[in-house]
Design brief:
single chain; alpha/beta; 12 helices
């Protein structure tokens, strides 16, 4: 069984496109097609279904992803054993929800670069469901999300931390609020919210609906940093993960607004697909997050 063909299989599984896989591998599209055909003939099973310009893993193809990753893991371990250099190279593909990408990843990436300067890192943002779909097709190595606890046999969770979601506004504005503001009064204020898709926003809407209430935001935008900048200029109230505004809270630029609504907790979680071969660069990044 050719290692080249197995590597090509994983790349096609990740991109779901023969031409994209060929471009990333530096092969012609016909060469990729031949390699997949050779592998399918050797395994005596169809690994992909070709529908339009995209290809999809068959059931057998999905099963083979685990074996292919194991083969490549053992192969790379053997190569590492023979290498004299301790310099770590390769790639690391991380998917994160927007709040994680904005607030947590910059410091982590700086630390990662300091210990793995030769590893090429790519970041993709999206909702938890979008990132999980990308991980299933081997487009991502790690997912760093903020959501309810992610459970399931096909996922391995590397880290988890409880996170508080809070109402925040410009510090000067909190003098207009009592210690605990009735949420009925608070939602009358101009609100800036993240776009639909954030798990904590769904939870806020659920809690409000139980009281027959809803927020009509003056602005919805997916970029947390933009929301924070608008709050700092006095534009309304928002509902954000506390870690995204921690510095502003500590400097008394923004203030937390407490209400009679039950507290909302989510979990920042780093995880990967159970069939994923865990590389050294993945292990290094996981250790940084744990720290």
């Amino acid at each position: 069984m050719e290692l080249r063909n197995i590597n090509t299989f994983l790349k096609v599984a990740g991109t779901q496109n023969f031409s994209k896989a060929a471009e990333q591998l530096g092969y012609s599209q016909s060469a990729v097609t031949v390699q997949i055909q050779q592998l399918e003939n050797e395994l005596q099973t169809q690994l992909f279904e070709r529908i339009g310009k995209r290809v999809y893993l068959t059931e057998k193809g999905q099963e083979f992803v685990s074996y292919a990753n194991d083969i490549m893991r053992v192969t790379d371990n053997a190569r590492d054993f023979a290498k004299q250099s301790d310099i770590l190279e390769g790639t690391l593909r991380i998917g994160g929800v927007e709040s994680i990408c904005t607030a947590l990843l910059p410091d982590l990436l700086l630390k990662f670069y300091q210990i793995c300067p030769n590893v090429q890192v790519t970041i993709k943002s999206g909702t938890t469901n979008e990132l999980m779909e990308m991980a299933k097709s081997n487009e991502l190595d790690l997912i760093y999300t903020l959501d309810k606890k992610i459970l399931g046999r096909e996922w391995t969770r590397a880290t988890i931390m409880e996170e508080e979601i809070v109402f925040v506004t410009l510090a000067d504005r909190t003098e207009n609020f009592s210690d605990k503001v009735p949420v009925q009064k608070l939602i009358e204020k101009p609100f800036i919210l993240t776009e639909m898709g954030a798990a904590y926003q769904y939870e806020l809407e659920r809690l409000l609906s139980e009281k027959d209430l809803e927020i009509n935001p003056i602005l919805e935008i997916g970029n947390t940093e933009t929301i924070i900048n608008l709050l700092k200029r006095g534009m309304g109230v928002s509902f954000l993960p506390k870690f995204t505004v921690q510095r502003e809270l500590e400097k008394n630029v923004l203030s937390q607004v407490r209400t009679n609504l039950p507290g909302v907790k989510m979990y920042s979680q780093l995880f990967y697909h159970k069939n994923k071969w865990v590389t050294k660069q993945m292990r290094n990044f996981i250790e940084l997050v744990k720290e």
